[in-house]
Amino acid sequence: MTSEERTCPYIAPAGHHYVAEVDPQWVVLTDEDRPPCRAGAGPRLPACGRPSVAALHHHVERGSAGTGSQDLWWAYCENHLYGHWIDDGQVYVWMLRPVPTPPVEQRSWAGWSNAAGDAWDRNASGVWQRRPAREQP
Ligand SMILES: [Zn+2]
User: Fold this and answer.
1) Residues spanned by the domain of 118
2) Does residue 94 share a domain with residue 42?
3) Does 91 share its domain with 32?
4) Distance 79 CA to ligand 1 centre (A)
C-alpha cells in the first residue's frame, strides 16, 4: 500500500488534518547485517529480537561516559515502528498539520438577494458587487 492510499487512523482536531510525511528521524535499513529489533529491551526484559527494517536516530547531548554528544540509531522490526511505515525506501508518519486556508481569490462566496431584487456577490478580489441584472433569477 502506498502512502497516498493509506487512511489515517487518527481523528484530527478542527482546522487540522493528518498528512503522510517522511520522518527525517528514521531511515530504512537495507544492510545485510542489521541489528535485531530493540523494542521492549530493558533491565529485566528481553528485546523483541526480530530482524530490524528501520532505525530511529537519537541524538544524545552527553554520552553515558560524559564524553560529549553521541548519535545513536535504534533499530526496529516492522512490528515496532511506532505508527510509522515504509514506502518507496523511506519511513513515513502521519503529521498533524493545519488545514491551509485558501487565498481569498480561491474561496467561493455565496451571493445574496433580497425581496427588492437586489443581488450581491463577492468577487475574486473580495469586493462585494451588485449582480448584473441579467443574471438575476
Ligand atoms: Zn520488534
Assistant:
1) 104-135
2) yes
3) yes
4) 5
What is the CA(117)–ligand 1 centre distance, in A? 70
Give the separation between CA 96 and CA 20, rounded to whole angstroms.
Answer: 9
Give the number of domains in the chain: 2
> Across the beta sheet with 26-28, what order do the strands follow?
26-28, 54-60, 70-76
Quote the ligand 1 centre to 125 CA distance (angstroms).
55
Looking at per-residue pLDDT, the higher value among 39 and 66 belongs to 39
Q: In this predicted model, what pLDDT tens digit does every residue of 80-129 receive, in sequence order? A: 999 999 999 999 999 999 988 766 666 666 677 777 777 887 777 777 88
Neighbours of 5 (CB within 10 A): 8
Residues 121 and 57 in one domain: no
106 Cα to the center of ligand 1, angstroms? 47
Residue 66 covered by a domain: yes
Residue 34 CA to ligand 1 center (angstroms) comes to 13
CA of 47 to the centre of ligand 1 (A): 8
CB 111 within 8 A of CB 120: yes
Over the stretch 4-29, which tens digit does the pLDDT of each residue have?
788 899 999 988 999 999 999 999 99
